[in-house]
Design goal:
By secondary structure, the chain is of the alpha+beta class. The chain folds into two domains: about 5-185, 2,3-Dihydroxybiphenyl 1,2-Dioxygenase, domain 1; about 190-395, 2,3-Dihydroxybiphenyl 1,2-Dioxygenase, domain 1. The protein is about 25% helix and about 30% strand. The chain has eleven helices and 17 strands. The strands form two sheets. It has a nine-stranded mixed sheet with strand order 6-7-8-5-1-4-3-2-9. The longest helix is centred in the C-terminal third of the chain and has 15 residues, at about 305-320. It binds fe (ii) ion. The site of fe (ii) ion (FE2) has 6 residues, from strand 10 and strand 14. Fe (ii) ion (FE2) binds near residues 194, 196 and 366.
Length: about 400
């Protein structure tokens, strides 16, 4: 079996819930054709394939966007009856489905159902002369869902990564000018590092248990655990991880604070319905990725300059205490690009958060680079929440 970044060692198929990879993340959007160009232009994705009226898809249009080992499907409904039209009306654009490649989607689904999952779609196989794709879906928080995907023949994931057709019914687009441009000016995004859900007040532990029971995830032990809730944070968060740590899914719930929390703001603008708050996309070179994304007019959260008066002492202290080398990236460049830094007992990380990706203050991206650290930037929470409050104030949402 080919090694799949971020390297699930898919050596055994005895565990039906062994996740081989994030097969794709599906967004429901108002206009997939236009959204595809936004993610291509701003984030460097290749607009690769389409499934629409021209391929016989009468009820929806879907674009496959790729970068590194990231695959996005952008789906729009072609009638008011389609589920995407319904969700977009209620929530605006957002993540609908985080799909996992498994050895046998039917077995994974049956196991999840027997573990207590609610069905979203029973197993279904689409095949042609070249191979087959089996999908089966369970529902998670809000209107979000997880689809299990198993693939054979020309539709195996290794072949998709080499540019093969994604599934029967997809058509490859001719090489667009934006794709050529993106190859010459890469943004360097490699794969989905983690994916965060916002749930309602008091429901975090319910969903933690759900991931433990249904998907057989475990609580991910990391540095942030010890002081997960501070007076500044106005959120509580627990991180769930798949057995092989392929995917980490922090779950947030709002906490009491002086002002409206970012989680409450999300829920207010998301039909009071839980959903995916952010996708963290991994890069090996934070400075390059952020510089390129800024050049493309991606909007990021802005932190006060005072952040950099304190950060190096805090981070370097932590790194030396645990016998690690200091941050190797140029400090001035980090400051100039507005990148955040945090450290823990295992190393450090660089991260930065975009502003919302649509007009509603809901879904955003995080661009993250790990140098040993496996945590999520707890040390940045205070500075971040202050920055977020400024942004919420601008939107009249405090
Ligand atoms: Fe994150």
């Amino acid at each position: 079996m080919t090694t799949l970044a971020p390297a699930a060692k898919a050596s055994s198929s005895t565990d039906p819930l062994l996740l081989i990879d994030v097969d794709h993340v599906r967004f429901y959007v108002g206009n997939a054709k236009q959204a595809a160009m936004y993610y291509a232009h701003c984030f460097g994705f290749a607009v690769e394939q389409v499934q629409d009226l021209t391929t016989g898809s009468r009820d929806s249009a879907t674009y496959l966007l790729t970068q590194g080992n990231i695959r996005f499907l952008l789906t729009t409904g072609l009638s008011s009856q389609h589920a995407a039209s319904h969700d977009v009306m209620l929530y605006g654009d957002g993540v609908k489905d985080v799909a996992f490649t498994v050895f046998d989607a039917t077995k994974a689904y049956e196991r999840a159902i027997s573990n207590g999952a609610m069905s979203g779609q029973e197993p279904r196989t689409i095949s042609d002369a070249h191979g087959s794709v089996t999908t089966a879906t369970i529902r998670t928080y809000g209107r979000a869902q997880h689809t299990f995907v198993s693939r054979t023949g020309a539709y195996e994931l290794t072949k998709i990564k080499e540019g093969g057709v994604f599934a029967p019914g997809f058509r490859k687009l001719e090489d667009l000018a934006i794709n050529r441009y993106n190859r010459e000016h890469p943004c360097g995004l490699k794969y989905v590092d983690h994916l965060v859900g916002n749930v309602e007040l008091g429901k975090m532990n319910y969903w933690v248990k759900w991931y433990e029971n249904v998907l057989e995830f475990t609580m991910f032990k990391h540095f942030d655990d010890k002081d997960i809730s501070t007076e500044y944070s106005a959120l509580m968060s627990k991180v769930m991880a798949s057995g092989n740590n392929l995917i980490k899914m922090p779950i947030n719930e709002p906490a009491e604070g002086k002002k409206k929390s970012q989680i409450e703001e999300y829920l207010d603008w998301h039909g009071n319905t839980p959903g995916v708050q952010h996708l963290a996309l991994r890069t090996d070179d934070e400075l390059h990725s952020i510089a390129e994304l800024r050049r493309r007019n991606v909007e990021f959260l802005t932190l006060p300059d005072t952040y950099y008066e304190l950060v190096w002492a805090r981070v370097d202290k932590m790194l030396t205490e645990h016998g690690h080398k200091p941050v190797r990236e140029d400090h001035e460049a980090v400051k100039k690009l507005g990148i955040l830094v945090d450290a823990d007992d295992e190393g450090y990380l660089l991260q930065l958060f975009t502003r919302p990706l649509q007009d509603r203050p809901t879904l955003f991206f995080e661009i993250i680079c790990r140098r040993g650290s496996q945590s999520f930037g707890k040390g940045n929470f205070k500075a971040l929440f202050e920055a977020l409050e400024i942004e919420q104030g601008r939107r009249g949402n405090l």
